[in-house]
Design a protein that fits this description.
Layout lengths: L2 H22 L16 E8 L7 E7 L2 H4 L8 E6 L4 E9 L2 E10 L18 E3 L12 H4 L1 E3 L2 E7 L2
Parallel strand pairs: 1-8
Antiparallel strand pairs: 1-4, 2-3, 2-5, 5-6, 5-7
Length: 159
Amino acid sequence: MTSSRMKTAALFLSIVTLQGVMLAALPPGAALAAEPAAEPATLTITFEGITQVSGEIRGQLFASEAAYGGKGGPPAAMFALPVAGGSVSTTVTGLAPGRYAIRAFHDVDGDGRMGANPFGIPTEPFAFSNNARGAFGPATWADAAFEVAGDTAAVITID
């Protein structure tokens, strides 16, 4: 065996031995991780500015721009909150920390759909997270998205 091959073999053996010693030092059941796992987040959503005390606030929470745009899977959460006053709240637990966006409407007549006139313009109140507004359509992901980590609150005016 040549000298350089012996040095390579010795280096490899040293690395393997060091890895074995490190793993043996771990307590039983422990795992090695590159980064600690993020704690699940909780999001409390409050809708305020409700002027008609009837029906329910229906909405969706999205965890990606693709899902928000209708091309990337289902919403992270959906909700239907009975309206009994000028504001309503809900809490979503167990979320992975990250960017989210909300879209919602006040189903005043209780038919389960957003009312619209013959031109497609909504006739029932609606809103997006960050109180974002769209131009001739829904608010963009960039305008509606916000960070969720730990205990997060989102207050949205629905009108």
